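Late entry, written up from scratch paper. The run itself happened at the end of the previous shift, but nothing got recorded in the book at the time, so transcribing now.
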Amino acid sequence: MNEIHIIGLMSGTSLDGLDLAYCKFSSQESLAFEIIHSQTVSYTKEWKARLASGISLSKEELESLSLDFGTFMAEHLNDFIELHKIEKIDAIASHGHTVFHQPQNGITLQVGDPKPMYDVVHKPIVWDFRSQDVAMGGQGAPLVPIADKLLFATYDACLNLGGFSNISFEEKGRRIAFDICPVNIVMNVLSEQLGQPYDDKGDFARVGNIDEDLLQALNQLDYYNQAPPKSLGLEWVQAHVKPLLELHRIPVEDQLRTFVEHVAIQISNIAEEKNLGSVLITGGGAYNRFLMERLSSFKPNIWILGSRELIEFKEAMVFAFLAYLRLNDCVNVLSSVTGAKKDHVSGRIFAGDC
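Output as recorded:
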């Protein structure tokens, strides 16, 4: 297919909302993409609670959640198509929402039944991008680096600041990528204690003070000494970060200030170690001005903010791109990134009852 139109749907671990991106991909001379329309559907308190509680549900309850969330995505997919009067659709790409991510135990699960979406568009739904990689001994994450390699090769590295920070770069002819540290998955929870869903522009953190004991404890977590491939999940945050925050009983603003410093240190350490000169930044954390200031204080003049569309919808676009590669039977998961036995073509295709 030289040109294909795909709608990508992405729900991130920070529970900001459901991102939808209507994208066009072409390969006439070189690979190119365009985000034609995009939208974020914010989650209600009820949906935030349901998705956050998925980690503790039984098998039957998870199946119910997956169907309900698939129906939720289908309803908003239909609204998105009608709002933008979209006529040409070749496929839908659905990341779903990650409930479990324990690759060391051979487990990863994203909820979001594809059938309700298929019933809306009657086009192939490409979904479940991660489980095949885990079955092949990989981390099942990160999956974005294939797009970084093929679509954003002019930058030394691509950094996403979402629920977690993850980075992707070329090293000795191979694409390397991994999760660096938690970001919004922690900071949003702290901000909610102050009555806001997130720390707008980093203003809460800006007025706080660094707690040196907490900062040292965070920076000494074993994960940061591990070599890639490696990835993080909600379970890791609950097991390692949450207890530290509870142990250091300090004002929430101080916790936020300390955590921003922790994030800036961990990311800057990687930039320094890899001698990166230009880093494209996307993800909601790019709007946290205070975090950006702290990054620049450690490593000035290397951080490049993407466009608004890229900052907010790069991941939804990337999963549409993964579906584009899947439908063309092209490799879309790199073993150098995930640690799987080999590069492979991932993503299940739902096309009705067949």
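Residues 282 and 306 are 6 Å apart (CA to CA).
(Scratch paper discarded after transcription.)
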